[in-house]
Amino acid sequence: MQLPTRKKYAVKDIMNDLKKIGPSPYVLSEIGSKLVYYEWSCCRNLLGNDHPITVNFNETLEFMEHGFERMLVEGELWRVKDTPQSAINDFLKERPADFLNHILERPVDYIKGLLESTVAARKEEIDYYKQMESGVRQEIEADSENPELWNKLRLLLWIVGKYSEASDAFKTAKSLGWTKESSAIVAL
Questions:
Q1: DSSP 104
Q2: pLDDT, tens only, 38-86
Q3: I want to staple 169 with a disulfide (CB 3.0 to 4.6 A). Which of 112, 144, 153, 184 is the partner?
Q4: Alpha carbons 64 and 60: distance in angstroms, whole number
Q5: To which H or E segment does residue 179 belong?
Q6: Range 76-115 burial, b when 16+ CB lie within 10 A, else e
Q7: CA separation for the pair 74, 101 (Å, rounded)
């Protein structure tokens, strides 16, 4: 995957690049901790806690580090159309233009390198979860009425980008009695 070379990065540029990467909760959390946290901190120091840019960085950090994962684990992202890109788009709809156009403080080379390492990490993550998928499918063959196993399969399929299959696995988990309240999986 080739990400665009930029002379500067605005918030919307980072988010658009992340949509191309199709991040998992782990990948999004890494960007949150390594980039967005720094930007939030800078804005908090320069503009204050209550400034709209600071507030939006805080909400973005919360989404990246916790909200996105929570949506997936709690079953909010289960339809075929519920992709990382759509979740990011839905989040961005609530952000003001001033925030989306805000230019980041981190150097361009740092941001570009971080995004490139994210692409590599995402490829490794997909390979890892694909290997886990076959093991979970074997577990399901042995215990096909277990909603937790079907939900586990849904999460694996979603992370590797098989959204249609993930949706079908979630429907099966729900039909077998899976609920977010009874789920054994609380985080990825």
A1: P
A2: 999 999 999 999 999 999 999 999 999 999 999 999 999 989 999 999 9
A3: 153
A4: 6
A5: none
A6: ebbeeebbbbebbeebbeebeeebbebebebeeeebbeeb
A7: 31
